[in-house]
Amino acid sequence: MKNKERRPLSKGRPDAGSSRPSRTAGPAKPAHRSEAPVRKEAPARKDAPARVQAKPQQQASQAAPVETRPLWPRSGDLPAERVPVILESSGAGDFHLIDTGRGLKLEQYGDYRIVRPEAQALWQPTLPDHVWEKASAVFTGDTDEDGMGRWRFPAEALGETWPLSLLGVDFLGRFTAFRHVGVFPEQIVHWEWMKARVEEAKAQGRTLKVLNLFGYTGVASLVAAAAGAEVTHVDASKKAIGWARENQAMSRLEKAPIRWICEDAMKFILREERRGNHYDIILTDPPKFGRGPNGEVWHLFDHLPLMLDVCRQLLSPNAVGLVLTAYSIRASFYSIHELMRETMRGAGGVVESGELVIREAGLDGKTRGRALSTSLFSRWVPA
Ligand SMILES: C[S@@+](CC[C@H](N)C(=O)[O-])C[C@H]1O[C@@H](n2cnc3c(N)ncnc32)[C@H](O)[C@@H]1O
Known about the structure:
Elements: E1 53-54, E2 67-68, E3 80-89, E4 95-101, E5 104-109, E6 112-117, H1 129-133, E7 137-141, E8 149-152, E9 161-166, E10 169-174, H2 188-203, E11 209-213, H3 219-227, E12 230-235, H4 238-250, E13 258-262, H5 265-275, E14 281-284, E15 289-291, E16 297-299, H6 300-314, E17 321-326, H7 333-343, E18 350-359, E19 371-381
Parallel strand pairs: 3-18, 6-7, 11-12, 11-14, 12-13, 14-17
Antiparallel strand pairs: 1-2, 4-5, 5-6, 7-8, 9-10, 15-16, 17-19, 18-19
Bound molecules: S-adenosylmethionine.
């Protein structure tokens, strides 16, 4: 990757702190600090490309000071573009989408059939009611993405977790209070792409370094590690990191080179930038709102430009990709597409952006049905 930029713009960004409440931070709580084994601080490189300013604590008294820095001015040509790109999955391993409709989706996760709210499903279900009524678990509650609610088990009470497998990685499905089940299967398309790149590099004797930001239960980190990458996984939630470590054990990848880091994602990447560390693939899957372990506020619309700017600095000279996914935001994929292209100005390559969709596959997992849009994505690749 060519780096044509010179020095950061002199003006700081608008205030990165916010007292807006987090609905999507998942299980993150402000109380915890970091998970072992977090490596010791290395001294900052003298030639670190950007100055980082610690902002005074001026917002919510419990929040940690928000670090920020000016954006780098980018010059050179915009990367080529490919739009719109619809990355479609029809399931993999133990997962497929059975049916959707009437504001709901019916999914197969291993032995369980699960019904969850799905605001995009404006149409009527294909399958008859009696099929839906036989679901193992139904989430009832807030219809907002990430809203709180509770699980109902129509046939028999189920435990909190159950075994699942995807792309050769074993992990636990989980009934969480935020309607999620411990995995976001629409991400399979990104994980397949990443796995292929890691394996190709491995075949040529190169071990890729993967950074997984907002990594949740670690399925992407495990897929990368199983394919032969060195992985750094960052999440603000101690609980999620605990789940990810359980998944690591389930996948028999205890010896794989994965650093589990419980920290605010922005804080972590700014420190990595100061240290001069680099990664070959960066996945970033930020929520709309979130909080770091010390109350650091993440607000996608305020902080994404800086996050991508720092991620660019973290890309290695022969980086393989920078992948962004954005959920439940009121924006077109063009918003993140043009931001990605501006951020990657002068780096060559191509930015492809669009939507991640899951295709209904019926009860048998093979009957092609309607496409369900799940999120926006933008991906820079070197060619
Ligand atoms: C949408 S999930 C990510 C899903 C994951 N990429 C996957 O595909 O499995 C959002 C995650 O972001 C984490 N999070 C929220 N705010 C954060 C912050 N400021 N820094 C780091 N992680 C944060 C939450 O704990 C949660 O695990």
